[in-house]
């Protein structure tokens, strides 16, 4: 049965029945004209929205419906993590092709709610619309942060260190593996980074609470883009040490076997949803955070510079220009 | 120049530059990973999301870009009004076909922000994504309401009166006029109801603050749907008096000239974005609200009943069954 066979009201009813019970903070949950929530006392409200589009951010050939739901929420959780905010609620806007099977829509919502439950996020409402085009899953996430404990892109100071969480390049290599019919044994870590990324929620919140960073951004659009965004917002340049980059091992092997420069591929590849920070030099506060949040590992990859026009990757003792950021309206890597 | 010529980052920069300055409540505005806001002291947070899709909710032949932006925000403001909440901020998610002219995107955003400014709503963030399909404009609106002053669909009690704001049928007739190449002199009121609907924000807030209603819903999906939704949520039936219906005059004339039953057309037509209330009998509080909010006018059209299965339109002394609600996955009227 497709969504067009069932009709919007009946589909909405079925999806509402699948949603987990919302938290006590939710005074009016899904199913009314809007949701009503009790704000977290003395905290600030943090909100963000991001959409994933079939044929642009995923293809149905490579993503199960549950993966699409997971990723649509994860990319938003990552934005909140970059602000050091704790996520609390989500709104789900589904723009559905009429021919989608209802069971696939249910799996998509289940994939999203499974991740939501893991982070204590209540799905408090949403919307279903039909489309003649590809599937769009647009998610809004709200959360909270203590006063003056949030992180922005604009706080980096020349001399601060550049730190990133986890590994980079995996999501890009994972996409290449999925798209390459000749790749028989794709790396499961890279595939998972592409299909079901983890948002670094605990780390982001700990970095803000502990005042361990002066600026942060998520690497949705890749390391080069993240560096450029913080650099532009903070008025800094940056020097990256290529030998320090924590490239995902399966990605590095994949590119080496294909004669692709693994440094440039890792620096420009997007969708890793790791976090990038500006950390004051010899930051004792960072050590404190790292003791309490052991996973993901964090790596120092460079330093923020005074001159905003100086954006370089140092490699074997030579400086190369930092490549441009990921550009969504061009073709994907 | 199209959005694909310009690229996402440059387009984002141009759109950010056009946004009005956010209110003092906005601590971190558009352009970072998420927005940070100061919640309204002692008030509850109210959030909703709704999308408009090209080819489903509008056609470019009949809607200027500014109309699309206006309507995408108005439909969300209407949902908040139905909860008696005051809107404060919005997130804008644009899913753009690569071939759209940049100037049209700018006009769309201007149409949205013009309405936003009128209601004191700050656009605090958003997202741009490309698509191979039709344009999708997904808006999330947040606002606030005092404790226990919100209205839901579930508070109606048998014996309560049914009141609606403004007129109905205009938006549906407006769509028919736009779609009918033979209609040389379309009614400007009906066209405006379809293209640039007003959300009944002041009225909704006044009804909640004044405790003048026990339940409310917006008529996005038409009167029959609104009656059915409140009826189902409150466990009530309803009796509508056809002779009391405030059908938009231009719509009634349009249908009469075409041999269409104006009562049934007005009852099933969607997109008027008026509000429907359950009001306690002889409500002195409603009189108070009506003295302070003169526009839109309000009309009593019926009564809520004890038996949830009794959903009737009384017409010339005879009962007819209330028609089913608007169904989005079917073709539009």
Quick description:
2 copies of one chain form a homodimer. Chain A is an alpha+beta fold and 333 residues long.
Q: Can you walk through the features of this model?
A:
- By secondary structure, chain A is α+β, with helices and mostly antiparallel strands.
- The first copy, chain A, has two domains: 144 residues, 2-Layer Sandwich (60s Ribosomal Protein L30, Chain: A); 161 residues, PurM-like C-terminal domain (Phosphoribosyl-aminoimidazole Synthetase, Chain A, domain 2), CATH 3.90.650.10.
- Chain A is built from eleven helices and 13 strands.
- In chain A, the strands form three sheets. Chain A has a seven-stranded mixed beta sheet, with helices on both faces. A four-stranded mixed beta sheet of chain A has the order 3-6-4-5. In chain A, strands 1-2 form a two-stranded antiparallel ribbon.
- In chain A, helix 2 packs parallel to helix 4, helix 3 runs parallel beside helix 7 and helix 9 crosses helix 10.
- The mean pLDDT of chain A is 95.
- At the A-B interface, helix 1, helix 2, strand 2, strand 3 and helix 3 of A face helix 1, helix 2, strand 2, strand 3 and helix 3 of B.
């Amino acid at each position: 049965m497709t969504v067009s066979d069932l009709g919007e009201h009946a589909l909405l009813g079925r999806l509402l029945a699948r949603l987990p019970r919302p938290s006590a903070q939710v005074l009016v949950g899904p199913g009314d004209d809007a949701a009503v929530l009790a704000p977290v006392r003395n905290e600030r409200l943090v909100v963000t929205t991001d959409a994933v589009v079939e044929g642009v951010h995923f293809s149905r050939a490579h993503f199960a419906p549950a993966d699409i739901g997971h990723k649509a929420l994860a990319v938003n959780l990552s934005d909140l993590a970059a602000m050091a905010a704790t996520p609390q609620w989500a709104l789900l806007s589904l723009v559905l092709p009429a021919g989608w099977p209802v069971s696939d829509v249910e799996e998509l919502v289940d994939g999203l709610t499974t991740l939501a439950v893991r982070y204590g996020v209540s799905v408090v409402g949403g919307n279903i619309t039909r489309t003649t085009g590809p599937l769009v899953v647009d998610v809004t996430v709200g959360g909270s942060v203590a006063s003056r404990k949030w992180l922005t892109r604009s706080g980096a100071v020349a001399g601060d260190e550049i730190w990133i969480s986890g590994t980079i390049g995996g999501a890009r290599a994972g996409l290449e593996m999925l798209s390459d019919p000749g790749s028989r044994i794709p790396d499961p870590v890279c595939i998972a980074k592409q299909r079901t990324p983890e948002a670094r929620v605990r780390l982001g919140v700990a970095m803000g609470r502990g005042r361990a960073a002066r600026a942060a951004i998520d690497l949705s659009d890749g390391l080069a883009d993240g560096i450029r965004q913080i650099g532009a917002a903070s008025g800094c340049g940056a020097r990256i040490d290529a030998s320090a980059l924590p490239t995902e091992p399966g990605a590095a092997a994949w590119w080496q076997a294909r004669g692709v420069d693994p440094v440039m591929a890792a620096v420009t590849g997007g969708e890793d949803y790791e976090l990038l920070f500006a950390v004051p030099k010899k930051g004792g506060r960072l050590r404190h955070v790292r003791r309490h949040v052991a996973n993901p590992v964090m790596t120092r990859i460079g330093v923020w510079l005074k001159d905003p026009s100086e954006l370089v990757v140092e490699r074997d003792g030579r400086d190369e220009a930092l490549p441009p950021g990921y550009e969504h309206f061009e073709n994907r890597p």
